[in-house]
Amino acid sequence: xxxxxVSTANAPSSPLYSQGVEAGPYxxxxxxxxxxxxxxxxxxxTIGEQCRQALANCKxxxxxxxxxxxxxIEVGVLLRHAGDFAGMNDEYARWFSSxxxxxxxxxxxxxxxxxxxxxxxxxxxx
Length: 126
Known about the structure:
Number of strands: 6
Helix content: 10-25%
CATH superfamily: RutC-like
Number of helices: 2
Strand content: 25-35%
Structural class: alpha+beta
CATH class: Alpha Beta
Order of helices and strands: EEEHEHEE
Largest sheet: 6 strands, mixed
Strand order of the largest sheet: 1-2-3-6-4-5
Low-confidence stretches: none
Radius of gyration: 14 Å
Number of domains: 1
Mean pLDDT: 96
């Protein structure tokens, strides 16, 4: 099954990874942080601001591949600080208010200056 690389200017990018990859009915969004694609800087210093932007970035990548948040079956959240769990949940609940996808939360393993959260998603579009 061939895979298709999906990219958009509406989310941060890097030559080191694909923003999204579609393979058959599956669409995988790379771990995305809260960088505002318009400014190139972090969307803010709080977990709410960064989580909101990371989710908006993921949504933009999904849409570039013809999918949406309603197609997401799994979300992975990596937090820099365990104490940010409640703040992340507050923002996350605004995006997935009913019938949320499966989710895991773990500690962010690399120290990226200022980055509080990284979010990845898997969608099923069949």
